[in-house]
Amino acid sequence: MKSARGRIELLKAIAHPLRIEILEQLEEGVKCVSDFEESIEASQPNISQHLALLRRYGLIDYYNDGRLRCYFLVDPVVPDVLKILRKQYKGSLPAPACCPVTKKGTYPGTRRR
To answer: Which residues are in the HTH arsR-type domain (predicted)?
Structure first.
């Protein structure tokens, strides 16, 4: 299990629309930079910078196939995180019974003054 710092670093690494798009494409399988250029509206140097960051955080890796650099997912938590980000939720969680909004109950903890 990742430490709290590791989970925070994971979220920081993922927290960019282009990196999410890259990771979603890598869920489908190995891709090289030219594959991303065809489907992502960004320059090759920009895509390469994001790939380097994702690799630095240990989420992806690559191998060379001739002149091509082929990227793939390595961190098994990435598909789970992406699945949660894609999930559509309806409504909100209910307010707690002690909430001033519901005007029911009292705070269960000790109040500090």
So the answer is: 1-93
Give the pLDDT confidence score for residue 107 in this predicted structure: 66
What CATH number does the domain containing 30 carry? 1.10.10.10
Report the domain count for the chain: 1
Residue 97 domain-assigned (yes or no)? no
pTM for the model stands at 0.80
Mean pLDDT for back-to-back runs of 10 residues, the chain (113 residues): 84 94 96 90 93 96 94 95 92 75 66 68
Return d(Cα 100, Cα 70) in angstroms, integer. Answer: 55
- Cα–Cα distances (Å) from 93 to 6, 46, 74, 85, 107, in that order, read 27, 39, 34, 17, 18
